[in-house]
Amino acid sequence: MKKIKKILSSVLVCAAALFCGCSGGTAESSDSSSYDVSTTESGAAFTVPPEVSEPAGGTAITYFGTKDISAFVAEYEKTTGGSVIIERPKGDYLTELQEKIASDASPDLCDKVENTYPYLMSNNLYEDLTNYIDISAPQWEDMTDAVEHYSFKGERFFYPTTLKIMPQFLIYVKGTYIQGGNLPDPEKLWINGEWTWDSFQSGAQGVIESPSVPAGTLIAGEDIFSNFLASTGTALFSQVGSRFADGFSSDASADVNALLSGYEIEYTISGNAADAMGETVFISGDESTLAELRKANLAVGAVPYPRGNDTDKYYCKASADGFLVPKGAKNIQSAASFINCSRIVCNSEEYREKENTALIKSGLLRSDTEWLERLRGNSEITPVIVDENCFDSEVNVSVQRLLTYRGDSWKDALSENLPKIDGALETINAVIE
Description:
- There is one protein chain.
- By secondary structure, this protein is of the alpha/beta class.
- The protein is about 40% helix and about 15% strand.
- The protein has 16 helices and 14 strands.
- The protein has helices at about 70-80, 95-100, 115-120, 145-150, 175-180, 185-190, 195-210, 225-230, 250-260, 275, 285-295, 330-345, 350-360, 365-375, 395-405, 410-430; strands at about 60-65, 85, 110, 160-165, 170-175, 215-220, 235-240, 245, 265, 280-285, 300-305, 315-320, 325, 380-385.
- α1 (about 70-80) links the parallel β1 (about 60-65) and β2.
- The radius of gyration is 23 Å and the shape is globular.
């Protein structure tokens, strides 16, 4: 299995690389197994398995979802000659999708949602794409581990279009941190390989104890627990062999709780980020948070979550996004071609530059986008894919209670909430077995 790499070089868009058919589809298998096309900077050719045939062009497929897919539609139309009909949900997305599937009116493409894996997969909501998409194609070269991560019962339902390393990061006011606490800059600690739980904790404590600094809260913002847990190399939910297990029962989770329990933590930001920044050492946020702080003319720094004390390398939370083909779709083969198109577009230098331009227009500096790319592209980072709310709404309540726990007894919190979580995992394991 190939290590997940950060995507830093563009992939040339080649029509033949997009066509991955299926032996179970309506098209007949082709005798030719090789397309003579150059698809990467190294000139590697895309070889199609013998049982796979090229899909017929001109197919109209239906997308049901909420994303802006205009760039992917343009590539799909140019490459295949097909078209995309876009349908938007009028109410609850998942309810409407399930109603479409039950009434034999399935769209060809749908969005990946947070409980896609493993809950919705265990409910047989999607089509298996194993024989429709060739994982050896150049556009998937750096996503092999991500695709395998989302495999279920040995089948591949989800081929992520994007893998975002460090979806949240820690933001701090440089003057407050360095001058108020008389402390080394976290960005420099990161560059020197010294950004650890220990240096994070000693630095934050120095800021909090400084008489010149009003900050009394350690961190405010999003997904704090799951990011710290990922920094230990431990997944929130993972497959151990063929069975799913929860990371809440791990020693690493107990360590995260111990790290945070002695401090004031705010798991949301009330009001605007600039006001919150005046009362907290770190904000856990994303590009939109950083842009908001830039608009307030704050001189801030940004770093990944620190390395766990018991690890010898940096682990970092990652999140995946993309499309799936719902059960009962009529145009699976063409939907798979669209997914290939979306992956190639997202992997292009042009698309990334367009994304960065949009971030700069939102308030980021060019140096911010370059710094974030540098962090996310660092070869020392090992991504840990995390989906937090993996179950139905009732079980997800228990997940969130643990992720935002602020009490005195982690053991009691586990006793109260783990039965529902582990019960849901056992139901999923029963489907696998």
